[in-house]
Amino acid sequence: MTTYPTTWRRPPQIFTHRGWRIGLQLAALIYLVFAIGTLEVSWARIAEGGERGMRFLMGFLSPDFSSRWRDISQGLIESLTMTLTSTVVGVAISIPIGIGAARNVAPAWIYAICRSIIAISRALQEIIVAIFFVAMFGFGPFAGFLTLSFATIGFISKLLAEDIEDIDEAQAEAIRATGASWAQLINYAIQPQVMPRLIGLSLYRLDINFRESAVIGIVGAGGIGATLNTAIDRYEYDSAGAILLMIIALVMVAEYSSSYLRKFLQ
Amino acid sequence: MLELQGLTKTYKTGDTALSDVSFSVPKGQIVGLIGPSGAGKSTLIRCINRLVEPTSGRIVLGGRDLTGLGVRDLRAQRRRIGMIFQEYALVERLSVMENVLSGRLGYVGFWASFTRRFPPADIQRAYRLLDRVGLMTHADKRADALSGGQRQRVGIARALAQEPELLLVDEPTASLDPKTSRQIMRLLVEICTESGLPAIVNIHDVPLAQQFMQRIIGLRAGQVVFDGTPAQLTESALTEIYGSEDWTAMRKGHEDDKDAEADALRRLSVLPA
């Protein structure tokens, strides 16, 4: 009769040598200590910041909707317009780019072009793009609209392309076998398979674009962000609090309604 | 009618799926293609409508060489070849009617198909075919609302909507239960006989092939090793196609299935109704 061991340990998965494991852990720890040392934490500034934060919080707790209502409502309308138009335009441009960026339906050279467009759009963060467009077209919602459309293209095209690459190939093969053209193949075999997800992604992007519209306003691209920036610059924390509450409420409405709609579409 | 001459397919990986396959199928003949998995059955029928590009050889359908055609000509020739698939391959989110009408895509322009405005004759034909396969009342259901047997009937109607001169059928019964399998095979054979339509049927189920096919071609490692009537398909021929061990195992498996089925029926019959 054989005796089986009663102890068992999970063998190390990545670094099998004990020396390497200890060495790497030690190196990470030393790096962390030095990195914290270079941060130059100033306690005086922290105390001051706390005080300002309190003032901000007080403003937040007593929001003032009325005295700057005209600015706030105008900013909100600008933001909502920017959001809706940029989502519609962005999605419309994303569909051909997304199809072109799917390896299974596009020829190699189109694939390369569309993937580079996506890469550029995704590499540039919204704020940077917004600064660029503000410099080109001046302050205001037009720069914001362009920024959000540009960002939407990277987002929707990439996810749409991945969804197209994940389709059930048998369905596409069956349509191809009937003698269908490329456009008919897209319409009959690809579109029915990706449509629910495309609608879901567009609604999700609408929601993201609204949030982003508040951020890019700060660098001058119009909308509620610009109003918020002005309020903070004037030390009107009560108005700023009101604006933040409006943004939070609208984001929550967008969040819940888009997730409800997406669930309905599945 | 259909003639294959020295058809060879070597994949990029260097695997030879077909080597020098030649045979011809006259009008109205139903040919069963049998062989172990990996013998090249699927590749062979996909080479015929060039869903898979053959490396060399010729495919002649009704006097027209299908190899070396450009994109536009290939589309026009694909219309002449209807195909029925293993897992039905219906577009699940389209309606039954749209799936049947998709058989007409090679004939209509993009706008007509995009707006779903097919010519009246096409719509009439689609209804007639749906009636023929017994799904008249299901026309506006979504394809994924149907059962397996019903879906395969839609697949048949779609292939017939092309008004093909040849049917390629890839494992039509692989995902169906035995009873539905026989119904589908019977329907296929009836339809082919009615209109003198030749068909090549990939089928892994040897007894089913023997029951329904007029002629059987056995493939092994990409080569034709048997070509004859079901009656000529003897034990030794099957051993030649499947290899001795595999064939014995398959036959045994089949007998086990039959025994299990008989046993289940026996048990069911004693249960109080």
From TrEMBL, chain A:
Transmembrane domains' residue ranges: 20-46, 76-99, 131-156, 240-261
Superkingdom, taxonomy of origin: Bacteria
Main localization (coarse): membrane
Membrane topology: Multi-pass membrane protein
SUPFAM superfamilies: MetI-like
Domain ABC transmembrane type-1 span(s) in chain numbering: 76-256
Keyword entries, A-Z: Cell membrane, Membrane, Transmembrane, Transmembrane helix, Transport
Pfam families on file: BPD_transp_1
PROSITE patterns xrefs: ABC_TM1
GO cellular component, one term: plasma membrane
Annotated compartments: Cell membrane
Keyword ATP-binding: no
Signal peptide boundaries: none
Family: Belongs to the binding-protein-dependent transport system permease family.
Protein name (Swiss-Prot/TrEMBL): Phosphonate ABC transporter, permease protein PhnE
Organism: Frigidibacter albus
Automatic annotation (TrEMBL), chain B:
Keyword tags: ATP-binding, Cell membrane, Membrane, Nucleotide-binding, Translocase, Transport
Keyword hit for Transmembrane: no
Residue ranges occupied by any ABC transporter domain in the UniProt entry: 2-246
Any GO CC annotation of this UniProt entry: membrane
GO molecular function list: ABC-type phosphonate transporter activity; ATP binding; ATP hydrolysis activity
NCBIfam families registered for this protein in UniProt: ABC_phnC
Listed InterPro entries: AAA+_ATPase (IPR003593), ABC_transporter-like_ATP-bd (IPR003439), ABC_transporter-like_CS (IPR017871), ABC_transpr_PhnC (IPR012693), MetN_ABC_transporter-like (IPR050086), P-loop_NTPase (IPR027417)
Keyword Metal-binding assigned: no
UniProt name for this protein: Phosphonate ABC transporter ATP-binding protein
Cited PANTHER family: AMINO ACID IMPORT ATP-BINDING PROTEIN, PHOSPHONATES IMPORT ATP-BINDING PROTEIN PHNC
